[in-house]
Design goal:
This protein is an alpha/beta fold and about 475 residues long. It contains 20 helices and eight strands.
Length: about 475
């Protein structure tokens, strides 16, 4: 009796899996022999055993099966075999049954992307996304612009955005692009530096040069080029000019992440940043410096009164990462098996975007939470509690609240913004800081609150009146 129930369950699973396979491989139809192979693969039959109970030869069954697994692997974006068929497709089947989800309603690009999601371990949406993460939402126009700029000798690209906007994820993809162009690529995260590294410029620049050299798999040879009498900035330039760059027979793409860490150390920032600018200027006249392409990424929350005419932040291509559009919210929702392309549910994307302003991290977090709850909570309920002390954004909002409470002039100015539906004119420095925090958007000289979440939460917490 137990075996009979088990076989019946396996047959039911097989029928559901075949239905999903038909959707994946559409318009290709699943043949009778393929259905036979799938059903008996799930029952644990070998190809030889399948041949013994059919009119097909072992070689023919193996050939048809191998082609089927190859076709599925192409669509799924990972290797599929008769041994993992049950696990992978059952996970996908479960997700496709959620929220009236059907593959036909998505573009070919998303069709290929969706099956890959189902077999990935669901990760909390914090930190950078892996290169093969299906949750990465592209900004095609921005990425194409950066790719084109990286081809230019001696270029500088500046990427800025509030925290959790996807800067690091983008940098890793730029690194891959650089390697595809047969460039050398070095990613350097300033968060990896010990606090003691920032004690003095000389120590910091030696750390900087040593890290890059090691990542290029070259011997660290600082002492031969470092001369205290000419200073650490000149020594650093000489090291690149006479040692590192000549060692390379291709351009070097230097990806500097979390540069805002340097902002916290004015003794470093006011020398290091102008040095990078000087290297960019060198590329206009000195051929060796044309090998270097700089990509500088930083969070906008940190503000230091840098001398802008001496920093790299007013040269090169400026990229400000945007908020998600409605279409991108829909695409990410599809990644979480939510069919917000459906006409009746399209407003969900609009409501979520209105609440969080298209903020990538806040959007991810909401969709992640909806998926985990598996129908136990609606989007309406989630948005209702979002601006409260028990909502899913409470920790993120509390961090912003601490900043505002420490800067009374920012608090007072932001209160003006959240209490009015029309734009508010603020002085330039205040507007710059609030925009850097992501709290406001500027339209001309007028400041508007970035999203409804901030309006509702801070109106209450700051006791604005």
């Amino acid at each position: 009796m137990d075996n009979q129930l088990k076989n019946q369950s396996q047959i039911t699973d097989a029928n559901a899996i075949i239905q999903v396979m038909e959707e994946l491989l559409s318009p290709q139809r699943i043949s009778a022999i393929e259905i036979f192979i799938v059903k008996h693969s799930l029952l644990g039959y070998t190809y030889h055993e399948m041949a013994n109970i059919s009119s097909y030869t072992t070689a023919y069954i193996k050939e048809i099966g191998s082609q089927l697994w190859q076709d599925l692997s192409t669509v799924m974006g990972r290797r599929i075999t008769k041994k993992n068929l049950n696990v992978l497709l059952n996970k996908y089947k479960y997700r496709t049954n959620q929220d009236d989800f059907t593959l036909e309603q998505f573009s070919p690009e998303i069709k290929v992307k969706l099956p890959r999601l189902s077999v990935e371990l669901l990760q909390f949406p914090d930190g950078s996304l892996s290169l093969d993460s299906p949750y990465y939402i592209k900004h095609p126009s921005i990425e194409d612009q950066i790719f084109a700029e990286l081809q230019q000798p001696g270029c500088v690209i500046r990427i800025k955005a509030p925290r959790h906007f996807g800067k690091t994820s983008l940098l890793h993809r730029l690194s891959v692009f650089a390697q595809e162009q047969e460039f050398k690529s070095v990613y350097l995260d300033f968060q990896e530096a010990d606090e003691t590294i920032f004690a003095c410029l000389n120590q910091f620049l030696r750390w900087f040069c040593s890290n890059i050299t090691q990542k290029l798999a070259l011997p660290v040879n600082l002492n031969d080029y470092w001369d205290e009498e000419i200073g650490s900035k000149v020594s650093c330039r000489v090291y690149f000019e006479k040692y590192l760059l000549p060692k390379l027979d291709c351009p070097l793409v230097l990806l500097l992440d979390e540069v805002n860490r340097i902002f916290e150390h004015s003794n470093i920032a006011l020398d290091f940043l102008p040095m990078l600018r000087a290297w960019h200027e060198q590329a206009k006249n000195v051929r060796i410096w044309q090998k270097l392409r700089l990509v500088v990424a930083h969070a906008t929350e940190v503000y230091v009164p840098l001398r802008l005419n001496q920093s790299p932040f007013n040269v090169g291509l400026l990229i400000t990462l945007p908020q998600f559009t409605i279409a991108q919210v829909q695409e990410l929702a599809a990644c979480y098996a939510l069919n917000w392309y459906n006409h009746q549910r399209m407003q969900n994307a609009m409501f979520l975007r209105a609440m969080v302003g298209g903020h990538p991290y806040l959007t991810h977090l909401a969709l992640h939470y909806l998926y985990l709850q598996k129908g136990e909570i609606t989007l309406e309920k989630l948005l209702e509690t979002a601006p409260t002390q028990t909502g899913i954004y409470r920790h993120y909002l509390q961090n912003l609240l601490v900043i505002l409470e420490d800067e009374l002039f920012l608090k007072d100015a932001f209160c003006q913004v959240v209490m009015r539906n029309e734009g508010v004119q603020l002085n330039a420095l205040t507007a710059y800081k609030l925009e850097s925090l992501g709290l406001i958007q500027l339209q001309g000289d007028l400041a508007y609150v970035s999203c409804q979440l901030y309006r509702l939460y801070f109106r209450q917490q700051l006791q604005c009146s």
